Amino acid sequence: MIMRPTPLAFPNRINLHVACFLLLCMFLHWAVSPASIAQETIAERKDAVRAFFRDADVGKNYAAATGKILFPDTRADGLQMLEELTTTISPDVIERYRMTAAYLHLHQLISDSMRQRIEYIWGHIPVHPFDGEHERVAYHTALHLMTRHAGEDAVFFNGKSMRENERESRAFLLDWIREVTELGQRDFDSPTYGAVTIAAMLLLRDFALDEDLRRAADLMAHWLLADFAHDYLNGSYCGAHAREHMNSAMNPVASDMSGLGWLYFSESHRMYGREQFLAALSDFEPHSTIVEIATRRAKPFESWERKRTARIYRNARNFTLHPDPARATEDVVRYTYMDPLYAIGSIPGGLVQPREQHSWDVTWISDHPEEPATFFLMHPYSDPDALRPFMPHSADLALRNTGLHDPYFGTVTKMVGGSPFEDVFQYKNTLIALYDIGKISRFPVITGFMPLDLQSLDIDSTETQWITINTGDVYIGMYPL
Asked: Who's near 303: CB < 8 A, 6+ residues apart?
């Protein structure tokens, strides 16, 4: 279930035209352990995911069609759904990747005419332009696997031969694997899109004919899961994220990566997702050490990581990505303090993505696992000039294109997004967020989110100025100036 809590302007929407200095401390927690959860084997969880997409009414999509076709008693319904999906073709690159995943998993169960239809789509119908790292990986994965399973005389919509597409897609994937392991991800730690990248690696692992690429994809799947595991807390992907949908920002256990967390680590409430379904079709299992990293929370620990911004094409005139120009580089330091009951994590602020950036949060284990258990503040910044470093368009065209993908981008009610006026500092469980907004910003306010399921919220506005929050097992103190 995806919760849609009401955003909270906190406290009473802080209208500051100059600066806001916020000190946040996690200052007390009870020494208790999360409630124990019945442990299933990974094989049982995979069977549950497959059964869900066979039986549940989740609309018409390639995961549901594949889930039904894999079982003889629902195969006819699944084939009919696949027929309808491939009649009206989406130009979205992720949908093309999902269609290709269905083609690969169902190759022996679908008719020659259906296989030819999917090959015709690849040969004649282009996809929309794309730029995100996860989109590049999904596209080149799907393209490479189609070249390896289509005939020598296969044609492709990009005008290149089968051999050219095979070589170029393989080169991209191996170069991306090298670049990410050496320099860090651009769409880093994404609760929304990370599952696409992991599922793509599993498709390569299972279906690529090149043994070197299969092995590299297997290692990369482990690498990405290990990178996820140390930020995982009982179903939540904690800390800062490059790309995150606002729904999972307000409810971390509702993300696509949380579905992979339940599949591989078990320690959360059960949920389902399309990329999780693709993972469940693979015989891949993470190394036991990765599972231990995700589930062992005996004492607090810290983690430092090096990530990267979205690809920067140019410098915008009279515009900086960060309050401190010396820190406006492609390198991004990500820091997380993980406690057995909560996590607090951040990046230094500024703009590292054109949209869907999540700079910091506090996330804890809730007594009600399906309910939101996170708190964060942000500056809902949106400006055409802020998009120009990341997009090869004019500012107005970039704003219009971004609005097509993200209708909340230009609104004051959005719950994700970076700001060039945000500066964040963190040491263990204490975080300071500085918002030097000034008068030039479109929305000179601080907004944020706090869940409704709290034991108490006390605002001492006349004496100490502290705001104290009791979540049940975790206490949070916030001091706004």
From this structure: 230, 231, 335, 336, 338
Binned at pLDDT 50, 70 and 90, residue 463 comes out as: confident
Of 130 and 353, more confident: 353
Indicate whether 16 pLDDT > 80.
no
Rounded to whole angstroms, how far apart are CA atoms 116 and 125?
14
The backbone torsions φ and ψ at residue 84, rounded to the nearest 5 degrees and listed phi first, read -70, -40
Cα(289)–Cα(222) distance, integer angstroms = 10
Mean pLDDT on 77-100: 95
- Tokens, residue 120: 């015709």
Query: Would you say 354 and 418 are in contact if contact means Cβ atoms under 8 Å apart?
Result: no
CA distances to 26, 177, 207 from 166, rounded to whole Å, are: 52, 17, 14
CA–CA separation, 82 vs 64, rounded Å? 9
Cα 110 from Cα 44, distance rounded (Å): 27
> Is residue 10 within 8 Å of 459, Cβ to Cβ?
no
pLDDT at 4 over 60: no
Do 189 and 336 contact (CB within 8 A), yes or no? no
Q: From CA 6, how far away is CA 9, in angstroms rounded?
A: 10
The rounded Cα 369 to chain-centroid distance in angstroms is: 20
pLDDT for residue 393: 74
CA atoms of 416 and 246, how far apart (whole Å): 6
What does the pLDDT read at residue 367? 84
Full 3-state SS string of the chain: CCCCCCCECCCCCEECCCCEEEEEEEEEECCCCCCCCCCCCHHHHHHHHHHHHHHCCCCCCHHHHHHHHCCHHHHHHHHHHHHHHCCCCCCCHHHHHHHHHHHHHCCCCCCHHHHHHHHHHHHHCCCCCCCCHHHHHHHHHHHHHHHHHCCCCCECCCCCEHHHHHHHHHHHHHHHHHHHHHHCCCCCCCCCCHHHHHHHHHHHHHHCCCHHHHHHHHHHHHHHHHHHHCCEECCEECCCECCCCHHHHHCHHHCHHHHHHHHHHCCCCCCCCHHHHHHHCCCCCCCHHHHHHHHCCCCCEEEEEEEECCCCCCCCCCCCCCCCHHHCCCEEEEEEEECCCEEEEECCEECCCCCCCECEEEEECCCCCCCCCEEEEECCCCCHHHHCCCCCCCHHHHHHHHHHHCCCCCCCCCCCCCEEEEEEEEECCEEEEEECCCCCCCCCEEEEECCCCCCEEEECCCCCCCEEEECCCEEEEEEEC
Rounded Cα distance, 481 and 436, in Å: 12
pLDDT tens-digit series, residues 150-163 = 777 888 999 999 99
